[in-house]
Amino acid sequence: MKRFLIVLALFMLTSLGCIAQGRRAWDTIPKGFDKKVIAFIVEESLENDIDPELIFALINEESEWKLLPPSKNRNGTYDYGLMRLNGAYIDEYIWRYGDKGRKYYPKTNIYDNIELGIRHFAVLYRECNGNALLALYSYNCGLTRTLEGRIPESTRNYAMAILTIYDPSFFIGTD
């Protein structure tokens, strides 16, 4: 049943819903971008009960759909891939969210980067009781800072940029 819903969602995203409703997050995907990667994002998002549109908007803000080069943070660490996973935490992401016994290369493998990034975001989303704004804050500046209310202005701007192109009205979930 879940596989059917994923296929149905892909059909709706590519041929009906996004185009017909002028879905702006979908429109940020560059023309000619690998359809297998887009399908993987949709599938991984739905498997984690996250709206793919929210992930599209997040990727657009994080990396503008560009794979390279890694971006350097003010603290000297680097962020990698479409999901811009912080290099200082990649081993933790693999340990927490990876499938046991499988090797992950999220700095260089687009699918590993997306899988771990979406799983990380899904955990934050659940920790924030399904509040997309708080989950975005957490993805950008950390869950602890978010829950303590210590959210930098740059993080507030980051989240608002994502939410201006994200329309949650289309997502129906996978239950």
Percent in strands: under 5%
Mean pLDDT: 88
Proper CATH architecture: Orthogonal Bundle
Q: Biggest sheet: strands side by side, in what order?
A: 1-2-3
* SSE order, one letter for each helix or strand: HHHHEEEHHHHH
Q: What is the CATH fold-level name?
A: Lysozyme
Say how many strands there are: 3
Shape: globular
Q: What characterizes the major β-sheet?
A: 3 strands, antiparallel
Number of helices: 9
Classified by CATH, the class is Mainly Alpha
| C-alpha end-to-end distance | 10 Å
Spans where pLDDT lies below 50 across 5 or more residues: 14-22
Radius of gyration, whole Å: 15 Å
Q: Helical content, roughly?
A: 55-70%
Instruction: Compute the number of structural domains.
Output: 1
Question: What structural class is derived from the secondary structure elements?
Answer: mainly alpha
Written description of the protein model:
This protein is mainly alpha-helical. The chain has a single domain, classed as Lysozyme. Helix content is 57%, strand content 4%. It is built from nine helices and three strands. It has a three-stranded antiparallel sheet with strand order 1-2-3. Strand 2 and strand 3 form a beta hairpin. Helix 1 packs across helix 3. The longest helix has 19 residues. The N and C termini lie close together (10 Å). 33% of the residues are buried.
